[in-house]
Each structure stands twice: as C-alpha cells, then as structure tokens.
Design brief:
266 residues, four-stranded antiparallel β-sheet, three-stranded antiparallel β-sheet
C-alpha cells in the first residue's frame, strides 16, 4: 500500500476503529498498520495539529470532532452534539502548526526509568529516545530540566540540569559520590522537540501561573514515583514521553563480544 498523507492516515484509523481515540493512540496505530513509513520525530504532535487545524479552519464542517481533552472522532460517528468538547476545553488545544509553540509550558519532553547501561558514557554522552516505535530518533544530551537517579529500590537523588545540560550532569554522576549507587534515571525537560528531531532552545517560559507550577509538580511526582493511590494519568504530559534507545556504541560492543565468544568456541 502506498504511503498515505497524514490526514488520510488519520481518517483511515478512524474508519478502522469507528470510535473516539486519543491522538497519541492514533499516531501509534498509523505506525503499526503501515499507513505511513516516515513519521518524523513527533508523530503525536503532527496528528494533533492536523485534526486541530481542520477543526479550526472548517468549524462544524470539519470531518473531525473533539470530544474530550486530546480525544477526537470522525464527525460522522458522533451519536449527538452533546459529545462535542466544550469551548473551554477547545481553547486548551493547539490551533495551528504556526502557533504550536503556544502550548509549550514548562515540561515539554520526558523519559522515565531510562537504563544507565544503554548509554555510552563518553565525554558528552548521547541520550537517545523516540516518541513511539517508528519515529525518528532524538538526542536529549543538550536538554535542560529536572532529573532523578534511581537504584533498584528507590529514588536516591533529585537534581536540576540548568547551568549544565542533562548529558553533562548525568555524566558527572557516573564518577562522583553517587557513581556506584544508581542504575536508572528519569528526566523532565524544558526544551520541546520539533518534527525534525531538534530541541527548540529559544522558547520563553513566561506567563507561568501558580496553577501551572502545581500541575507540573504533581505530574512529575505521579509519573516518577507512581504512588499506588494515584491513577497514573500523565496530566499535561500526553504525547511528551520518550522511549529510550540503546546507544549504537553499546550495540556494536555487544556484537563484538558475541563474535569473540563464538570464535573462542571454534
């Protein structure tokens, strides 16, 4: 099957499922079913922007309808107009690709329980992640924000990467007093990612309210420590999590080790 345009792929998923879906689920289904091969670095954002632009441009004539925060459906599958999102909810979403930066608040990308052993700890280590399977790889070594170090039982350290980048701060912790105490790390970054997989370092963190700060602190704590009485919700974080990718140097080293072991047996 020929690769579909983004809008065509979104419609195809809705036609398959015949129900409302979160834009992150739509992006994953597009990849799983091969409707698009080239996904870029931020397929979830691209899906959201396509539907939102269509809704804002065509209003009630749009083929899409928003039924809840981040959740959309093909308008023809709506049972009644009461399912539509309220104007207040609609105002929270991205309006067009041109104004996508307006949704960038404080945390714009994050990774949970990344494995220390999957990073090649060179002078400036690469921190590689993808938004979903099939998406383009992003290097977060120059990210800034908050990070946590974990051992097998608990979080042992919380720090900030502001004056130094995330890659530099984590590299320092491989040789300092914490060097032998952590094997996982989580991070919450201020810089967003564009569709080409580059960090946008020129954003301005202004107009931040006390409510914004409260929401962000709550979301970070829920995502990072997962308290049993909290429903894991990713509040404000939908589409922002990145899955760790193994450093190519680690893969190469493993292959060389396997070859050596096979050679020794001959």
């Amino acid at each position: 099957m020929a690769e579909l345009k983004w809008k065509e792929a979104i419609v195809k998923v809705f036609e398959d499922e015949k129900k409302a879906l979160h834009y992150t689920d739509i992006a994953e289904l597009i990849a799983e079913r091969g409707y698009r091969k080239s996904l870029g670095a931020t397929p979830s954002d691209t899906v959201s922007a396509n539907m939102t632009t269509d809704i804002n441009t065509n209003k009630e004539n749009s083929i899409f309808a928003k039924v809840d925060k981040g959740i959309y459906i093909l308008r023809k599958f709506l049972d009644n107009s009461s399912q539509l999102a309220t104007e207040e909810t609609e105002a929270e979403i991205v309006t067009t690709q041109k104004t996508i930066k307006e949704r960038y608040k404080i945390i714009n990308a994050f990774g949970i329980y990344w494995n220390r052993n999957l990073v090649h700890w060179k002078t400036t280590p690469d921190l590689l992640g993808i938004q979903q399977i099939g998406a383009s790889e992003v290097n977060f070594k120059d990210q800034i924000g908050i990070y946590l170090l974990h051992d097998s039982r608990e979080t042992i350290y919380v720090g900030q990467a502001i004056e130094q980048t995330l890659g530099q701060r984590l590299k320092n912790h491989t040789t300092d007093r914490l060097g032998g105490r952590w094997d996982r790390f989580s991070w919450f970054g201020f810089y967003p990612v564009n569709e080409n997989g580059k960090l946008l370092t020129d954003i301005k963190l202004d107009n931040i309210t006390v409510q914004n700060l409260g929401d962000i602190l709550e979301a970070i704590l829920i995502e990072s420590i997962e308290p049993r009485q909290n429903r894991k919700q990713g509040n404000l974080f939908f589409g922002l999590e990145y899955l760790q990718q193994e450093a190519p140097e680690i893969k190469k080293r493993l292959k060389e080790q396997i070859i050596r072991e096979l050679t020794d047996k001959l």
